């Protein structure tokens, strides 16, 4: 079975076609014939190599996928072969205390499809039955593939960990990536005033159409802390959604209102930061980490998508023959939304 992936860790030049065995579903598992798979920034880290995470090689990239049920393992029922589905890429053991409490993303055995297992940018993927969900009727395979990773991440970060309340101000750092386009919508639907910070004026109107009240242009002369301090009339911001890391988190902390929260969901530009703790305790503010979501939170996202209260944002769809170009597209400065590969392996 052919997939888009790598034989050895490194940069984008390592990405190409790899061959892995077609998986067979075991008890309680489902095999999905993938029709579309999405590429995420997370795939760059898998490609580079994540310290402490052994990654099978050759390795297929991709955490998101949508397709049709192809085969059922022993004990699986109520899911006809041929059903249109999407998958939840978060894997948990369903037996630990955290899982039994409904906090699956805190499972000590938690894994992610495409990182700890072979990914979705190929012909077939096997996952537990609990990870397979009906594709919302309004969504195409390409739209469905663009949903799982970013929408569940943004939902938990804003609604649960960030504990957003109606009327609060929410700042989204970066306006073009898939998780940012999801976060704008989720925060707006929660009744927040949303401001987006970006270095690309071309994205202003698109962010506003998703629900941003304001979009601020970041420059060397006006970094995010100064921009947010002025925008908030020196009050500060209640909730800041930060996926950048080292260059932005200290400035995000300085931009908080009293009782404000920075929720960190990634570190694309570096993981180590220096913080002035006096800002935290004097403003009674906090920095919180969040990743992925619980099963209930994932279900909530799917309900919102089915009702069209949330809308997938697809930057571009690539045919399978151009799958390598899809990975390169992640670095484009005009990227807006998710990059999807139409899989016809």
Question: How would you describe the overall organization of this protein?
Answer:
There is one protein chain. The protein is built from 11 helices and 18 strands. The protein has 345 residues and is α/β, with parallel strands linked by helices. It has 2 domains: 2-147 and 312-342, Medium-chain alcohol dehydrogenases, catalytic domain (Quinone Oxidoreductase, Chain A, domain 1, Alpha-Beta Complex); 152-289, Quinone Oxidoreductase, Chain A, domain 1 (Alpha-Beta Complex). Strands 3, 5, 6, 9, 10, 17 and 18 form a 7-stranded mixed β-sheet that branches. Strands 13-12-11-14-15-16 form a 6-stranded parallel β-sheet, sandwiched between helices.
Topology, number of strands: 18
**Structural class of the helices, strands and pairings?**
alpha/beta
Tally of helical segments: 11
**Judging from the principal axes of the Cα atoms, what is the shape?**
globular
CATH class of the largest domain: Alpha Beta
Radius of gyration from the CA trace? 20 Å
Name the helix and strand elements from N-terminus to C-terminus, one letter apiece.
EEEHEEEEHEEEHHEHEHEHEHEHEHEHE
Helix content: 25-40%
Oligomer class: single chain
Mean pLDDT across every amino acid position: 95
Distance between the termini: 8 Å
Proportion of strand residues:
25-35%
The name of the CATH architecture of the largest domain is: Alpha-Beta Complex
Question: Which residues form runs of ≥5 with pLDDT under 50?
Answer: none
Q: In the CATH scheme, what's the topology name of the largest domain? A: Quinone Oxidoreductase, Chain A, domain 1
Largest sheet: 7 strands, mixed
Number of domains: 2
CATH superfamily placement of the largest domain: Medium-chain alcohol dehydrogenases, catalytic domain
């Amino acid at each position: 079975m052919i997939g888009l992936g790598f034989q050895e860790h490194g940069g984008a030049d390592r990405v190409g076609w790899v061959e892995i065995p077609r998986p067979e579903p075991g008890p309680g598992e489902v095999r999905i014939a993938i029709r579309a798979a999405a590429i995420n920034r997370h795939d760059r880290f898998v490609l580079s190599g994540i310290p402490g995470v052994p990654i099978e090689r050759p390795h297929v990239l991709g955490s998101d996928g949508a397709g049709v049920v192809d085969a059922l393992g022993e004990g699986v029922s109520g899911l006809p072969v041929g059903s249109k589905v999407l998958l939840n890429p978060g894997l948990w053991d369903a037996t630990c205390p955290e899982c039994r409490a409904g906090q699956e993303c805190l499972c000590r055995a938690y894994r992610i499809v495409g990182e700890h297992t072979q990914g979705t940018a190929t012909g077939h993927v096997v996952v537990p039955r609990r990870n397979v969900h009906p594709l919302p009727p309004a969504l195409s395979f390409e739209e469905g593939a663009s949903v799982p990773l970013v929408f569940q991440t943004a939902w938990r970060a804003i609604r649960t960990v960030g504990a957003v309340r109606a009327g609060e101000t929410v700042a989204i750092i970066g306006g073009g990536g898939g998780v940012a386009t999801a976060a704008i919508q989720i925060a707006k639907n929660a009744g927040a005033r949303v401001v987006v910070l970006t270095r690309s004026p071309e994205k202003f109107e698109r962010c506003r159409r998703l629900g941003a009240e304001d979009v601020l242009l970041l420059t060397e002369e006006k970094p995010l802390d100064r921009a947010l301090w002025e925008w908030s009339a020196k009050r500060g911001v209640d909730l800041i959604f930060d996926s950048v890391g080292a260059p932005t988190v200290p400035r995000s902390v300085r931009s908080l209102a009293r009782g404000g929260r920075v929720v960190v969901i990634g570190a694309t530009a570096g993981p180590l930061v220096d913080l002035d703790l006096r800002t935290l305790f004097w403003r009674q503010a906090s920095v919180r980490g969040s990743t992925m979501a619980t099963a209930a939170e994932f279900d909530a996202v799917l309900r919102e998508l089915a009702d069209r209260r949330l809308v997938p944002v697809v930057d571009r769809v690539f045919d399978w023959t151009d799958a390598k170009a899809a990975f390169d597209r992640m670095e484009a400065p005009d990227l807006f939304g998710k990059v999807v590969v139409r899989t016809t392996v």
